[in-house]
Amino acid sequence: MPPLTDRYPLPVLQDPPGAGGERPRTWRSLEELQGSPELARAAEREFPPGAAEPPRGLDRRRFLQLAGTTAALAGLAACRKPAEKVMPYTVQPPDVKPGIPNAYATAWEPEGYAAGLVVTSWEGRPTKVEGNPDHPASLGATNHVAQALLVDLYDTTRVRGVKQRGTPRAFKGYLQEQTERASRLEANGGEGLWLLLEPSASPTRRELVERIRQRFPRARVETYHALSRDNVYEGARLAFGRPLETRVRYDEARAVLALDADFLTQGPDALREAREFSRARLPERGAMSRLYVVEAHHGVTGMNADHHLRMKPSEVERFVLAVLGELAKTHGLGGLERYRELELAWPEKAREVRAVAGDLARNGERAVVVAGERQPPRVHAVAHLLNAVLGSQNRLITLYEPGVEAVRSGPEVLRELSEAASAGRVDTLVMTAFNPVYTAPVGVTLGAALSAVPNAVYLAFREDETSKHSTWVLPAAHVMESWGDTRAVDGTASILQPLIEPLFQGLTELDVLSPFAGVAAQTPYQLVKSHWQRQTGASGAAFDDTWDQWLAVGTIPGTQTQGTRATVDASAVESSVRNFAREPSQGLELNLLPGYKMRDGRYFHNAWLQEMPDPLTMLSWSNAALLSPATAERLSLKPRDKVKLTFRGRWVEAPVYVLPGHADDTVSLELGWGREWSGDADAPEVLGVNAYLLRHADAPWFADGLQVEKLDERGRYATSQDHWAMEGREVAIQDTLGAFEKKRPEYLKHLKGPVEELYEPFKYEEGYQWAMAVDLSRCIGCGACVVACQAENNIPVVGREQVERGREMYWLRVDRYFEGSPDEPRAIPQPMMCQHCEKAPCEYVCPVNATVHSDEGLNEMVYNRCIGTRYCSNNCPYKVRRFNYLDYRPKVTEVEKLGFNPDVTVRMRGVMEKCTYCVQRIERARIESRKERRPIDTEALQSACEQVCPTEAIVFGSLHEKDSEVARRHADPRHYAVLHELGTKPRTAYLARIKNPNPELEHG
User: Fold this and answer.
1) How far apart are CA 562 and CA 490, in angstroms?
2) Topology of 245-400 in CATH?
3) Model confidence over 689-706: pLDDT tens digits?
4) Are the C-beta atoms of 659 and 298 separated by less than 8 Å?
5) Three-class DSSP category at 307
6) For 471-481, what is each residue's pLDDT tens digit?
7) Beta strands 650-658 and 625-627: pairing type?
């Protein structure tokens, strides 16, 4: 008889045919690209040694303080109904049924404007945030910050009650004192009264502010935000003569030039812009758009660019002026004749300038130029001029009157306030803007100045740097505890309704302003409702019915505006261009960035955001000094070297992170870090570097003159970029449009189709066949799905040290790959979750049958059976299983238990867990369909990651419905199975990422 291997030949694990040589190799880090032996050894060690509790150097109390509310949210099982202290009722309301969640529409103001939300509430307990599909700014999606709002809601370190110089006081006493003081101030027209507010599109707040101005004509009402949009408004004022908002239709654009603009994740309309941009990136729909991003760092929008043109931040202005001159000279666009003599000697960028200008000219009215908020007004004005000349201002762009107070809100406001307070000219200061003492620029000693203010009132969410110097500290209400209103960029109005009674006697901004507006007796609910009642002219039951409809839908019909018309003042733009300094900057430039997760620092205590990996650096729990590989080599710096950054006599120390694709001779540093933990922490720990210590009022974002000194010690940061390594296999696939069109329909044939099998496979012929599809052309790598999965599935925070050990618990991670050279890489984000393989390797090796397969294709976990051998994780080629090294179920307060999702079992120490395809949502939909005697509506059924995705990159459904979106994507020519050669037959399909590069700039 012939040998067994001759009779039953086994498939051999090897690189799939076509994997080598056709596409550049992908890599995650410079260490992987260089073949670091240390990294190779780490990849061989599947599990970090030791699972002792408590973690090394971190006692249990300190761990809970660092992990904040999230450790609590992953705590005791949520099977018991909490005591009804917040919403007591003796007669059950008709809309509240035990065990059945309700959804309520509301909104929040992430950038001064509205984004619609729908919040899931269990018997009065908000547990999950989603986007409102009927809201024009969210379209059913949210970002990572909105998903993490629940952590702040249930944070027990929030300010509790009114305090005067640290002494608890009753709100009634505070209200009486402020009312009396307002009466005294009224006698002199409000001289000495200052209001420091954040930009807001709230109509009711605007009405209160107008009342205050009328009552106190000599008062100062100022807006302030550390991430001010002053440049946007001043640029529009320069171009149009007045401040305006710009709304771009990216789904109709064919060429986009982004000038230091991260429009996919930042800005008041980012969710809508990301959705529309993704719809223009699908090769099967015809012509794809082309995106050029000019920036110093490597942002999310830059990661999705067809051409990422890296340069110093000060050179962005020079680049757009060079494009302007090229369009005037070579392409002869009407309206640019006066710029034909504009000559910028810049031979090293001449090729890029010609290619970008040519592409803009060819696409004409379907080409658009956008400028980022960090760039000076002149860059914004030139962008408006180019859009007007190209014709896109009328085709792709709508201009709106600002819904916020379009006045200056930058650091200059704090300088004037500090000078007035120090001189004794401020009697009463009301602050609702976030922590101005912490965010104040260098030279503005606002903390000391506040000590000279007799009546400094601060509305604070937590004790912070500003509360230390304030006379009165008021507890700020969470957005889910507040009545209010707001508008989107297009004018659409929404009502903010509370989902839960304030947990810590929280007050809204309307509460704080009402005594000075003379309406202290009215509640925020009364103020908002009466404002809109006056707007409609209705009254009584008729208005009450209308009001209820507004609350149910989340928007107020008929409030959207049609935009406005404006003409570019070409002479004013020309005058500003004439003043441009032709010589480029010399030496190193400091580049300050808005915190991707922390923003201006207000989310510093949010553990979900702290632990979420940054989309590009994959950093958790801190920031770092970002340098290009070439600059790091020139300065003899390596990753994690500690450096001293000195700028205009001020310095900070930071660890080095070498970021591929970063501009040379530039050091980038995120704002919002380096704060001390508030609350009752025994040993406050500073996480990250406070970049505000280098920020000057005349250089809020970038400037030259930075000095870098290498120190003898090593720095520390936690990054997950090399965790769960794929060992160089063909996992994340990116190609050009030309290559895809040439190979269709045989595209990626070696990564799909049948595989050799020893046994007859199980046939899934009946019932539902659950599956997922991830379109990498749509995915922008924002990470919202990571936090949404965490919120939905009670996934705990593990802390900085455990991330350093590779023990993060995320069921879904977004891997970031690079291909090409370290200086000019092309980035590829790839969401990776359990693939729910039909032939799952994890199932074969479990000794206790804790992981099994359902007849609907789900790879299921039975937690009660699991004994923690970790064989399944070792045998999983996708590295998506997570082991509970520690007990994340400590005894927590009743308040912190409220945020649990009761549909999801909380796991214990020693148990393996993973993505379940949101099986709890499947089962809830199944129960509802049985009650109504109908099939499951698989199109309406969404996983948490699918529902949150701004770009519709993730789709979930059943393959048995051949016309479903998930079935269509599984049949798409771009689809492939990750590690197809292993024969695991994953139910999750990926669609290759297609880029549309300009042939004139293709390289590598």
Assistant:
1) 8
2) Dimethylsulfoxide Reductase; domain 2 (3.40.228)
3) 999 999 999 999 999 999
4) yes
5) strand
6) 999 999 999 99
7) parallel
Question: Per-residue pLDDT tens for 95-125?
Answer: 777 888 999 999 999 999 999 999 999 988 9
Q: Which two three-digit tokens encode residue 165?
A: 């110089």
Distances (CA, A) of 635 to 588, 805, 989: 11, 29, 44
The answer to whether residue 1 scores a pLDDT higher than 80 is no
What is the distance between the alpha carbons of residues 869 and 88, in angstroms, rounded to a whole number? 46
Helix (H, G, I), strand (E, B) or coil at 543: helix
What angle is formed at CA 487 by the lines to CA 482 and CA 492, rounded to 5 degrees? 125
Give start-end residues of each CATH 3.30.70.20 domain in the chain.
4-56+734-755+769-995
Q: In this structure, are residues 496 and 521 in contact, taking their beta carbons and an 8 Å threshold?
A: no
Closest CA to 428 of 514, 516, 511, 507: 516
For 590-647, write each residue's pLDDT tens digit.
Answer: 999 999 999 999 999 999 999 999 999 999 999 999 999 999 999 999 999 999 999 9
Helices 377-390 and 315-329 cross at an angle (nearest 10°) of 30
Please give the full DSSP string across 678-721, using - where no structure is assigned: -SS-SS----S--GGGG-BTTBSSEEEEEEEEEEEEE---EE-T
- CA dihedral for 713, 715, 721, 722, sign (positive or negative): positive
* Model-wide pTM > 0.70: yes
Nearest in space to 202 (alpha carbons), one of 390, 483, 498, 545 = 483
Tokens of 864: 């009660």
CA atoms of 807 and 58, how far apart (whole Å):
15
Domain 4-56+734-755+769-995, CATH 3.40.190.10 — does that match?
no
d(Cα 20, Cα 17) in Å, to the nearest integer?
8
The whole-number pLDDT of residue 374 equals 97
pLDDT at 744: 86
Measured between alpha carbons, how far is 674 from 686 in angstroms, rounded to an integer?
Answer: 5
Q: Where in the chain is the domain with CATH 3.40.228.10?
A: 245-400
Q: Which CATH number fits domain 173-223+406-553: 3.40.50.740, 3.40.50.620, 3.90.180.10, 3.40.1160.10?
A: 3.40.50.740
CA proximity to 764, closest of 958, 965, 923, 942: 958
| pLDDT tens digits, one per residue of 489-503 | 999 999 999 999 999
Structure tokens at 182: 């307002």
Q: Are 627 and 662 in contact (CB under 8 A)?
A: yes
Query: What's the token pair of residue 568?
Result: 């570019």
Enumerate the CATH 2.40.40.20 domain ranges in the chain, comma separated.
Answer: 586-719
pLDDT of residue 49: 54
* Better pLDDT: 889 or 820: 820
Mean pLDDT of 439-463: 96
Residue 746: alpha-carbon gap to chain centroid: 37
C-alpha torsion sign, points 996, 289, 826, 13:
negative
- Return mean pLDDT, the chain: 89
Q: Provide mean pLDDT across the span 59-83.
A: 39
Mean pLDDT of the region 666-678: 87
Long-range pairs of 138-142 with CB within 8 A, sequence gap ≥ 24: 138/271, 138/272, 139/271, 139/272, 139/275, 139/950, 140/947, 141/271, 141/274, 141/275, 141/784, 141/948, 141/949, 141/950, 142/115, 142/117, 142/271, 142/784, 142/788, 142/948, 142/950
Nearest one of 795, 800, 887 to 833, comparing CA atoms = 795
Would you state the pLDDT for residue 44? 59
Arithmetic mean of pLDDT, 314-319: 94
Assess whether the previous peptide bond of 54 is cis (omega < 30° from 0): yes
Structure tokens of 75?
Answer: 């705590």
Give the SS3 label for residue 380.
Answer: helix
Strands 367-371 and 255-259: parallel
Strand partners, 257: 292, 369
Tell me: pLDDT of 78 over 80.
no
> What would the CATH number be for the domain defined by 586-719?
2.40.40.20
pLDDT in tens, 920-934: 999 999 999 999 999
Report the pLDDT value the prediction gives residue 73, as an integer from 0 to 100. Answer: 40
β-bridge partners, 507? 476
Contact 248, 367 (CB under 8 A): no
